[in-house]
Amino acid sequence: MELIKKELDVEANVNKLRTVISFIDKQLEAVSCPMRAQFQIELSVEEIFVNIASYAYSPGTGMAQIKTIISADPPEAEITFIDRGMRYDPLAKDDPDVTLPASQRKVGGLGIFLTKKNMDSVSYEYRDECNILVLKKQLVRQ
Amino acid sequence: MDDLVIRKIRENNVLTVIAEGRIDTDTTPGFDADVNSSLDGITKLVLDFEKVSYISSSALRVLLDLHKKMTHINSRLIIRKPIDPVTEVFEITGFSDILNIEK
Which ipTM value was assigned to this complex? Predict the structure, then answer.
């Protein structure tokens, strides 16, 4: 079984979003990830990274580490986000009510909701003063 | 990676905004400001999404605001021809029940 492991240490700042997405895309494209899976992974990575960049170290700054493992059989991406910011479990919040009319809609929480819907699994743990969030997604046509 | 290019066409009270590229956390503020600066006297706003390759939840925030704004002045917002993965974002979040989407 073939494994490709990569790591990116990046400032947790929204202006680094393109750096993060390019890092992810390069690896997905190397294994010819289907377009729809790539869209869903980019979306999830953006939502998680922007959350960390916006809140983890607020009002200060800090680093985020992103580790990827691409495995071949079955083709799957595992993407881990690690930060040393404020303890925060994004999975603990209730899902937003997506049936409400426009006038009652709030947009908070839609990013993590989309992430949960689009990934095969999303897990969170707090260990050694780190927030650790892991996304997994099979890279197959759906 | 493609950025976002916006072209605006105004015919009488109809504004068509042709967006091309990605509407993400980076490009959403510019998209928001650009569209909102052109809404005076508009009764129908068409967002042509055929060449929008990607949206994230940041775009949903702006679309909901635009929808509310247009509804408030008895006007219409139409999203034209979003690609399938973008349509799925609307479906998952229930935005397909709120927005007028033309396939």
Answer: 0.93
Please tell me the CATH code under which domain B4-102 is placed.
3.30.750.24
Of B54, B60, B84, the CB nearest to A110: B60
> Which residues of chain B form beta strands (DSSP E)?
4-11, 14-23, 44-55, 76-80, 100-102
pTM, two decimal places: 0.95
- Split into its structural domains, chain A has a count of 1
Per the CB < 8 A criterion, the answer to whether A21 and A52 are in contact is no
Each of the 103 residues of chain B gets a pLDDT tens digit; together they read 558 999 999 999 999 999 999 999 999 999 999 999 999 999 999 999 999 999 999 999 999 999 999 999 999 999 999 999 999 999 999 999 999 999 8
**DSSP assignments along A37-70, one per residue:** HHHHHHHHHHHHHHHIIIIITTTS--EEEEEEEE
Interface contact B1, partner A, CB < 8 A? yes
Please give the structure tokens belonging to residue A89. 């479990």
Measure the CA–CA gap between B98 and B39, rounded to whole angstroms.
Answer: 20
List the CATH number of the domain containing A92. 3.30.565.10
All structural domains of chain B with their residue ranges: 4-102
Residues of chain B with C-beta less than 8 angstroms from the C-beta of A102: 64, 67-68, 71, 98
B100 part of contact set with chain A, CB < 8 Å: no
Which residue bears the tokens 């190397």? A30
Distance CA(A109)–CA(A57), nearest Å, equals 19
